[in-house]
Amino acid sequence: MTTLTDRIVRYGELQPCKTAFIDAHTPGSDQKENFTIIGGGVSESPDQHVHIGIPHGFNIGAAGQPPKCRNSLHSHRTAEVFFVLSGRWRFFWGRWGDAGEVVLEEGDIINIPTGMFRGFENIGTDYGMIMAILGGDDAGGGVIWAPQVIEDAQAHGLVLGEDGKLYDSKIGARPPEGVGPMKVLSEEQLKDFPEPTAMEVVGGYVRRYWDMVALADKTPCKVIGQTGIIRDKPGFEVDLVTRKSASTEMHSHDVPSVLMPMRGHWRVEWAGNDQHPAGHAVLAPGDTMSVPENLPHNATPAMTGEASLYHVVSTGDPAGLTWRGD
């Protein structure tokens, strides 16, 4: 029998990677910290630390950035969902990042449509953190960068190879023989990347924290899912649980699930089984807990005050395109 300690990642124990992506040396993006909490993530760097490698049907990650630091324009083949843990963030999209934008505050969530270029920037006054949920166990097999991002990176010494790996020419690294640099998308290929308006994205894919808290008055708010307030099937479902909608009743899932506190401290209790003895743990904002499949458990606020947490569970749906455009 094993304890669940190794399935809890504390905020203060997160191990960042500062060379995760091709824009790691580009001014304005060179202070990013990328975290892979659950799953393989989408990092292009072998330096990326994975905290929990157990397949969940989705990945959990995070991005930490100081003020005025941005993540460059890129696209994913599978779902990418963010909620703001701390700070104030601007999300923007389009070929040049000027098709639309939205500002998210703490607790707000965005389900960014796949198949379009997107980026984000910390516009707050202090270091900020956004938590990410990526569809699929392989997170879509990598990142597709806007052409100008690849070109800017090359000017600052970083080359992305056809093998999806980064090579830093400043330290003498270069792609192995037979591996060329990643080709930039042609103008014809770029036509396949949609540029929805701000109204389309904000109206369909963004939800505000306090609105979700109000909807979680008696039962958890189904944020993302086939019946969610963001109606989508990205391969997982996301609920927001608050003090009013938390329950002491034990429940379980036939797949691993994840608990991510947003506000307050949460006491998680679980019943014993053949693999894990009964126990409990207290989670704080920024902590992440992976709950094993078929393990009865509950989560309730551990003290007075505001309390909310995001709950994520795989649905087994293909983590396909979320942008419908119709």
TrEMBL record:
Signal peptide location: none
SUPFAM superfamilies assigned: RmlC-like cupins (SSF51182)
Domain Cupin type-2: 67-130
Pfam families reported for this sequence: Cupin_2 (PF07883)
Cited InterPro entries: Cupin_2 (IPR013096), RmlC-like_jellyroll (IPR014710), RmlC_Cupin_sf (IPR011051)
Protein name: Cupin domain-containing protein
Organism: Sulfitobacter albidus
